[in-house]
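Figure 2 data, in text form.
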Amino acid sequence: MILIASGWLVGRLFRLSSTDWPAVLFEFPCRNLSIAAVIGITVLNRPELVRFAAALFLIQALMLLPLTWAIVKQRVAVRRETK
């Protein structure tokens, strides 16, 4: 949850457009977990860290689904208003 919040904060801090900040929001957890998985397997030689990163990614993906649905719903509503 902290990674999701930090992605949202960075997007807002740099005043990204409404089409760009969701990408940063979703990218933060994925990037950090992939870095943790690569370091876990290559540097530390601990494959259980890769499993942990994968499990955490799935949990965060489930948390982001409602947010994704809300963003898509809002964009569809905006497109309908402009037509």
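Caption note: The chain has a mean pLDDT of 80.
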